[in-house]
Write a structure and sequence with these properties.
By secondary structure, the protein is an alpha+beta fold. Helices cover 25% and strands 38% of the residues.
């Protein structure tokens, strides 16, 4: 008996890396708001301030404790570079001392996964994976992968958005496991002509 198995290629592109960390000193946010031109805040709704760094491009949420979130970068290296640049700005403005330092780690990767040359039968996918798919409200099905902490937005086009992992090796592993599940449950349809 001949077993025919069709496997498709998939491409993973990291779109956003979210880093969290803290500076070694507290920051007076009232002073920071007036010093960091373009910063935004709403103390009644959120206890931090938002600041968009131009070069390298990154967005920060900064808290009084010195904790921060950095987003909008595509690699950990670019994130560390942005944090270092932001710390340099804080030092230059006198918001922290010259010996202030930081620690950080990657908290989340957001990646686009393209399963090349296929579409996904979303009605069948929703039935097989026990998720809700309401195309009149949102064009993708949302799937939370138990045990991995990853979530996927699954589109008809064969494109997926994966978030919830913090390491590129874990990202590759989780995408491969999910891809294998899609193949095993027969929800991938070839669109080759």
């Amino acid at each position: 008996m001949l077993l025919l198995m069709v496997l498709f290629e998939f491409e993973i592109t990291v779109q956003n890396v979210v880093l969290t960390g803290s500076f070694s000193e507290e920051i007076d946010l009232d002073v920071a708001v007036s010093s960091l031109v373009g910063s935004k805040h709403s103390w009644k709704r959120f206890p931090g301030l938002a600041y968009k760094l131009k070069s390298p491009s990154a967005t920060f949420l900064l808290f009084k404790s010195g904790k921060f979130v950095c987003t909008g970068v595509k690699t950990r290296v670019k994130g560390v570079e942005a944090i270092d640049s932001f710390l340099g700005l804080l030092k230059m403005l006198g918001l922290v001392s010259g010996v202030c330092s930081f620690v950080c780690c990657v908290k989340n990767l957001v990646a686009l996964v393209d399963i090349v040359g296929v579409s996904i039968a979303l009605e069948q996918f929703s039935s097989e994976f026990g998720v809700v798919y309401a195309p009149d409200k949102f064009p993708a099905a949302v799937y939370r992968m138990g045990g991995f902490g990853a979530s996927f937005l699954v589109f008809l086009s064969g494109k997926l958005i994966c978030s919830g992992v913090s390491d590129e090796e874990d990202l590759k592993r989780v995408v491969k496991v999910f891809y294998d599940q899609l193949v095993d449950r027969g929800v991938i349809e070839s669109v080759f002509c």
